[in-house]
Automatic annotation (TrEMBL):
<dbReference type="Pfam" id="PF11716">
    <property type="entry name" value="MDMPI_N"/>
</dbReference>
<feature type="domain" description="Mycothiol-dependent maleylpyruvate isomerase metal-binding">
    <location>
        <begin position="4"/>
        <end position="89"/>
    </location>
</feature>
<dbReference type="InterPro" id="IPR034660">
    <property type="entry name" value="DinB/YfiT-like"/>
</dbReference>
<dbReference type="InterPro" id="IPR024344">
    <property type="entry name" value="MDMPI_metal-binding"/>
</dbReference>
<dbReference type="GO" id="GO:0046872">
    <property type="term" value="F:metal ion binding"/>
</dbReference>
<dbReference type="InterPro" id="IPR017517">
    <property type="entry name" value="Maleyloyr_isom"/>
</dbReference>
<protein>
    <recommendedName>
        <fullName>Mycothiol-dependent maleylpyruvate isomerase metal-binding domain-containing protein</fullName>
    </recommendedName>
</protein>
Length: 205
């Protein structure tokens, strides 16, 4: 699943023009190309490069990752696509989040890119199910603050998937995934008596 998502991302990158690459993504203040740079850096950047940036960033992993993504984004888009294909089968399995974290990173960032560009999402149901289970399962460190899903019931109406108990947050799996990971734009696609509380938590965290 992960390897295929990397190749699909490479195919997407090959279709983007300069204006699209410079468009703001849903991921903080990153452009589309910087999001791509982040995905490439996770599998293609030398460990020594990350270590140097960690030192420069005061050992703040988030700042180091942002700087590394920016460096990668300075490369031509075709080169980034090539690196995604070259390293598509990289067996990287980060601690705690493991393979589900890798798959989730690709799916969420894919939507960070596609939504602002108005491109179809083409997400695979079985992969979305893995990601949703991961996001509410307590291991999604760096993806979902622990308190965000607590006391709410989430339902993906197009998957027959649900988790949790409490006020309901219901919608398509893609919108549930994006809202759990803090993308405010996706909240408008959800319904239920728990949506207001989820929106409040996203705005606070």
């Amino acid at each position: 699943m992960i390897s295929d998502e990397r190749r699909r991302m490479a195919d997407l990158v090959d279709t983007l023009d300069a204006e699209q690459l410079a468009t703001r993504s849903l991921c903080d203040a990153w452009t589309v190309k910087e999001v791509i740079g982040h995905l490439v850096a996770a599998i293609a950047a030398p460990n020594s490069a990350l270590l140097k940036l960690l030192v420069r960033s005061g050992f703040n992993i988030h700042k180091a990752n942002a700087r590394l993504a920016g460096q990668m984004a300075g490369r031509p888009a075709g080169e980034l696509a090539g690196l995604l294909r070259e390293h598509a089968d990289n067996p990287l399995q980060p601690p705690i989040v493991g393979y589900p974290g890798q798959l989730t990173d690709l799916q969420v960032h894919g939507q960070d890119i596609r939504r602002p560009l108005g491109l179809p999402h083409r997400l695979e149901p079985e992969r979305l199910r893995v990601t949703l289970d991961f996001l509410v399962g307590g291991r999604a460190v760096g993806f979902v603050p622990r308190r965000r899903p607590l006391g709410l019931r989430f339902e993906a109406t197009d998957l027959g998937w649900s988790a949790g108990s409490g006020p309901l947050v219901s919608g398509g799996a893609e919108a549930v995934m994006l809202a759990l990971t803090g993308r405010r734009v996706a909240v408008a696609d959800l319904s239920g008596d728990g949506v207001a509380e989820l929106r409040h938590r996203i705005e606070r965290q």
